[in-house]
Amino acid sequence: MLKMLNDIKEIRIEKTNQTRIGEFDENNLKFGREFTDHMFVADYHDGEWQDARIIPYQNLSLSPATSFIHYGQSIFEGLKAHKSENGEILVFRPDANWKRMNESAHRMCMAQLPRELFMDSIIKLLQLDSAWMPSAKGTSMYIRPFMFATEPFLGVKPSPSYRFMVILSPSGSYYSEPVRVKIEKHYARAMEGGVGSAKTSGNYAASLYPALQGMKEGYDQLIWTDAKDHERIEEAGTMNIMFVVDGKVITPKPSTSILDGITRQSVVQIARDWGYEVEQRTIYVKEILEAIQNGTLTEAFGVGTAATIAPIKTIGIDGVDYDLNPVDNRPFSQKMGAYLSDYKHGKVDDEYHWLVRV
After folding, report:
1. What are the φ/ψ torsions at residue 299 (nearest 5 degrees)?
2. Element spanning 304, H or E
3. pTM (two decimals)
4. Which of 167, 183, 309, 317 has the alpha carbon at shortest distance from 237?
5. Fewer CB within 10 Å, N- or C-terminus of the chain?
6. Interval 113-133: pLDDT, tens
7. Cα–Cα distance measured from residue 126 to residue 133, given in angstroms and rounded to the nearest whole number
């Protein structure tokens, strides 16, 4: 059953005088390049969220002393909406994103977001900009909620004020081809006890330089390892990582250095319900290398909101590239990718109650 949300009267709406819908070509969409006519904004001060509003998409005006610019109190989420065959807009697992955003906010000493504010900001915005909703194969509406500290003060302390925003981006696929990855054993993205489990901007900033070096070597992404010994696999740059070894689905267990991905959670639950043995545990680089060499590793793929199911065709380990099974010979990830796509488009029964109808 699809859940319904009631309209919230308190959100003030200011419509644009000039739509940009004429610039929109759903058959030629890149990921994260196009943005709809409107955006949601709410501000937190004096201990409460105030002035919830949808306004025309526009640049922001901020003080040069705005604290998030200097001290990094900035978090975000990413989720998607898809159009069903009968034209409905379906949002996939927004409750999970709301919960994770508040977990990130807690770790970063930021204000908590009420569920109603989070959910209705997304629903109202999707309703207003529904004409931008793409329906071509491989497209979706990428939804980006984010929050940042707004106090204009050059002192290292949690800000007492925040801004929460939502923008929409009609997008194509994040990866159009199977990816080449390198297991990174020098640089680190996050460490135990740090903020790796929070979806905070600084984690991604830390990944940019090593990812750029990897791209120069011909890789699309890095697979991060633990910061202490670089012996344990953690996650990839834009997605969690999964393997099929000896018929078992294995993935690193969540920790303070690994983002607990919502697509990852979904795949784990579905796979278990399908009867697969799933292990969330410590995975060592050496065991993956051994599984490649002895032929027991049959599939490797990334899972994430942007990537969904991203098959990995090559893994680089210690300067050696290992090519994996052809993508068309990967029964688990092929089946999972097709099922998730059908689920998000409303083509199968919503047995997990993960869909919200707009």
Report:
1. -150, 145
2. strand 297-304
3. 0.94
4. 183
5. N
6. 999 999 999 999 999 999 999
7. 8
